[in-house]
Amino acid sequence: MLIVMDKSAGPDELAAVVERIEKYGWQPKPIPGGERTAIGVLRNKGPIDPALFLDMPGVRDVIPVSKPYKLVSREMHPDNTVIKLGEGNEALEIGQGRLVLMAGPCAVESESQALEIAHAVKEAGAKIFRGGAFKPRSSPYSFQGLGVKGLEILAKVREETGLFIVTEATDHEVLDVVEEYTDIIQIGTRNMQNYRLLRRAGQAKKPILLKRGMWATMDEFLMAAEYIMSEGNSQVMLCERGIRTFTRHSRNTLDINAIPYMRSESHLPIVVDPSHAAGRRDQVIPLARAAAATGVDGLIVEVHNHPEKALSDGPQSLYPEQFSRMVEGLKTMNVAL
Ligand code: PEP
Ligand code: MN
C-alpha cells in the first residue's frame, strides 16, 4: 500500500504516519517525490484497511499496491528511476531518455587487451566499459577470470579512459572487493535467484545491473530486483539478456516482449544485452537495433580486438569496427545517445 501525503504535509505529519505503520508491525518506506512524499507500507501479510490512515492529518490518499514486487513496481513509484554515476562534467545518467552504451570484452584477459578495446569503444561512443574479472563459466576447466588482478586492470582502464566500469560479482564473498573497484556491480543470469548475493547487493553502495535468469519469468525477475531494493539499494537496472527456448539458430532468445512489460510494471532503467541473447556475432547488431527501437535505457555489448583468440565468448564478440558501425547505425535511427 502507498500512502500519499499532501503537498503541504510537514515532518511531524510524516512522522506520525511512519509511527502508525510501525505500530502495526509493518515497515514504512518513505519515497520523496518532486512535489509530495509518499510512504510505502511493506511486510504486511494481508490487505490493509485504508481507513487506518485516511483520517490522519496530512494524508491525501491511500492506494493499494497489488503487485508482490512493491518497491520495484511502477504503482509505488510512477516516475522513472534515474541512476547517476560520477559528478560534475563527468556525470552520466542512466534512465533519463538517452541510450547509454556499455561495451567491452566478456572477460578481462590482460591490461593491453582491456586498454585497446576500451580506447576503441570509447572512440565509438561507449560510456561504460564492461569486462569480467570473476567469470561464471559453464565448465570448471574454462578460464575463470583474472580475479582481483582483473579488477586492478579495470581501475586502470577507468583512469586512462574516463569510462565507467561494470563488472560481475559471482558470489557474496567477492562482492566486497568488486564493490571497491567498480562503478556498477553486475549480477549474472546464473545468480539471479542467489538470494544471499541479492541481499548483499542490496547493501552495496553502488548501482546493480541485474541480469534476468535465462529461465526466469518476469515475476521471478522483478522479485529478484525486489530482494535488492528491500535491503535499501534503489539503484537497480533490469537487464534482459535472452532466455532459453527450443531454438537452435541462436544461443538464447531475446525476449523483446519483456521490454514494454518491464517498462509498464517497473520504474527501473532497462538494459539489453544482445550479445548473450545471440551467441553469434552476425545477430548482435540487428538485436541491438531492435532493442534500441523499443526505447531501452542501455545496451551492453561484447567487443573484442581478437575475438578468434578470446578466452570467453569470442563467437558473439563484435570487432571494434563493427561496434562503431553499430553506433553509427543507431544514430540513423534517431536514437538519442
Ligand atoms: C557476461 O556478461 O559476460 C555474462 C556472463 O552474462 P550472463 O550472466 O548474462 O550470461
Ligand atoms: Mn560473456
Question: How does this model look, in words?
Answer:
- The protein is an alpha/beta fold and 337 residues long.
- The protein folds into 2 domains: 2-63, Alpha-Beta Plaits (2-Layer Sandwich); 83-332, Alpha-Beta Barrel (TIM Barrel).
- Helices cover 34% and strands 18% of the residues.
- The strands form 3 sheets. It has an 8-stranded parallel barrel with strand order 7-8-9-10-11-12-13-14, surrounded by 7 helices. Strands 2-3-1-4 form a 4-stranded antiparallel β-sheet, with helices on one face.
- The chain is elongated, with a radius of gyration of 21 Å.
- 44% of the residues are buried.
- The model has no long low-confidence stretch (mean pLDDT 96).
- Bound molecules: phosphoenolpyruvate and manganese (II) ion.
Compact overview of the structure:
This protein has 337 residues and is of the alpha/beta class. The chain has two domains: 62 residues, Alpha-Beta Plaits; 250 residues, Aldolase class I (TIM Barrel).
